[in-house]
Design a protein that fits this description.
The chain has 484 residues and is mainly alpha-helical. It has a single domain, classed as Amino acid/polyamine transporter I. 70% of the residues lie in helices and 2% in strands. It is built from 16 helices and 2 strands. The chain has a two-stranded antiparallel sheet. Helix 7 runs antiparallel to helix 14. The radius of gyration is 24 Å and the shape is globular. The chain crosses the membrane at residues 49-69, 75-96, 131-152, 194-218, 283-304, 324-345, 388-408, 414-433, 445-467. One of its GO terms (cellular component) is plasma membrane. Belongs to the amino acid/polyamine transporter 2 family. Amino acid/auxin permease (AAAP) (TC 2.A.18.2) subfamily.
Length: 484
């Protein structure tokens, strides 16, 4: 037990010792197994880093883009999407430069990068925003998965009982089912053991996005192009609603592009030479280009298909008619993708809390002791009581909050607004300025601060629009009684 405690407590010291040993190894020509920090050789490439980014980025956010473009119209919609993709690419390039500190030391997480470049209270603010955002994403994904599962049930009901049947279904049972599945998957100890879940999730995200795109093209071929240059017309909505919805659309698009909170962690998987920054910049360009193309296609074809009536979730707009089985496949793909996506975004939060608890109470057997459970034919399972209890409570809390506030589009908008400015724009710019010692009031410094200010205004507007949407929804809603 004492050895286990010591292992937990002295994780960093061990890394330093391994580092020292590996440096000795390097001097003796034995550097084939270890990197310069003493960790096992990283094997990531441009392709694996791009795959990680695309997996993280092309999530359920893609489904709200047709609705977002419907609020902005044929001119502003694509322009705003292009601008968001450019800002995301630019600030991601700045962030990639912050992976290594001036002395060459690696920063393994976003918080460590902020600690070594900025320090002080900003580290705490970054951590609070990052982990609050990850918590929020877990709630958003629970809501989205339940909507997709409800859609399958209703689609089959319409198919059996006819289109005139109401087929109302509560999504609460499906949130509970999703929660139970996540409790099971949350017991997987750490990030490097969920790679297979990530691959399945990535395949599923391309599946449902492609089905949505294909159905959009088919609908446009049938009914012709819809939509207008200025978006949803005043008359269909009031002037005030139009403004609020534009703000909310900005939040939805911001959410669809945000992956900065896990960029440093992805960069830490990349091998060198060439330098990690070069590889990451290439991966960022490739993945943002692929994502933007996919987003433009899905968002624009969805708007062309539905015009002002574009739904908050693209797939629900095709109704529950034939080919009903194709929509069932798409909705099942969303639910499966979100099982994996929930884990990808929750694992850093799990790791943070468990590391903090182990440092706080190193003598506690409840926190540090692993129980080995033999599984015939497989490796024995390491069960940790604290991990099991805390992760189960986390999933239960996210499920209950999801049942209380099941407003998918508004939740997505709030998440996009909360994470976009600080994590995608402010911290990358501030860290780059500090690291490169860019002089205050120089033209480069002024341009960067202006970009940050514009993005802050957009974030505040998006948050306001989404909160207004939630307030509107709350007027007509009863807790735990949402039906579709």
């Amino acid at each position: 037990m004492g050895e286990e405690n010591a292992a937990t407590m002295n994780h960093h010291q061990q890394n330093h010792r391994v580092s020292d040993l590996s440096m000795d190894g390097i001097s003796q020509g034995g550097s084939k197994c270890f990197d310069d920090d003493g960790r096992l050789k990283r094997t990531g490439t441009v392709w694996t880093a791009s795959a990680h980014i695309i997996t993280a980025v092309i999530g359920s956010g893609v489904l709200s883009l047709a609705w977002a473009i419907a609020q902005l119209g044929w001119i502003a919609g694509p322009i705003v999407m292009f601008l968001f993709s450019f800002v995301t690419y630019y600030t991601s390039v700045l962030l990639a430069d912050c992976y290594r500190s001036e002395d060459g030391k690696r920063n393994y997480t976003y918080m460590e990068a902020v600690q070594s470049n900025l320090g002080g209270v900003k580290v705490m603010l970054c951590g609070l925003n990052q982990y609050l955002n990850l918590f929020g994403v877990a709630i958003g994904y629970t809501i989205a998965a339940s909507i997709s599962m409800t859609a399958i049930k209703r689609s089959n009901c319409f198919h059996e009982k006819g289109d005139s049947s109401p087929c109302h279904t509560s999504n609460n049972p499906y949130m509970i089912i999703f929660g139970i599945v996540e409790i099971i998957f949350s017991q997987i100890p750490d990030f490097d053991q969920i790679w297979w879940l990530s691959i399945v999730a990535a395949v599923m995200s391309f599946t449902y996005s492609s089905i949505g795109l294909g159905l959009g093209i088919a609908k446009v071929a049938e009914t012709g192009f819809r939509g207008s240059l200025a978006g949803i017309s005043i008359g269909t909505v009031t002037k005030a609603q139009k403004v609020w919805r534009i703000f909310q659309a900005l939040g939805d698009i911001a959410f669809a592009y945000s992956y900065s909170m896990i960029l440093i962690e992805i960069q830490d998987t990349v091998k060198s030479p060439p330098s990690e920054e070069k590889t990451m910049k290439k991966a960022t360009l490739l993945s943002v280009a692929v994502t933007s193309l996919f987003y433009m296609l899905c968002g624009c074809m969805g708007y062309a298909a539905f015009g002002d009536l574009a739904p908050g979730n693209l797939l629900t707009g095709f109704g529950f008619f034939n080919p009903f089985w194709l929509l069932d496949i798409a909705n099942a793909a969303i639910a499966i993708h979100l099982v994996g996506a929930y884990q990808v975004y929750s694992q850093p939060l799990f790791a943070f809390v468990e590391k903090w608890a182990a440092n706080k109470w190193p003598e506690s057997k409840f926190i540090t002791k692993d129980i080995k459970i033999p599984i015939p034919g497989f490796k024995s399972l390491n069960l940790n009581l604290f991990r099991m209890v805390w992760r189960t409570i986390f999933v239960i809390i996210t499920t209950i909050i999801s049942m209380l506030f099941p407003f998918f589009n508004d939740v997505v908008g709030i998440l996009g607004a909360l994470g976009f400015w600080p994590l995608t724009v402010y911290f990358p710019i501030e860290m780059y300025v500090a690291q490169k010692k860019i002089p205050k009031w120089s033209s480069q410094w002024i341009c960067m601060q202006l970009l940050s200010l514009v993005c802050l205004v957009i974030s505040i507007a998006a948050a306001a629009g989404s909160i207004e949407g939630v307030v509107t929804d709350l007027k007509t809603y009863q807790p735990f009684k949402t039906t579709y």
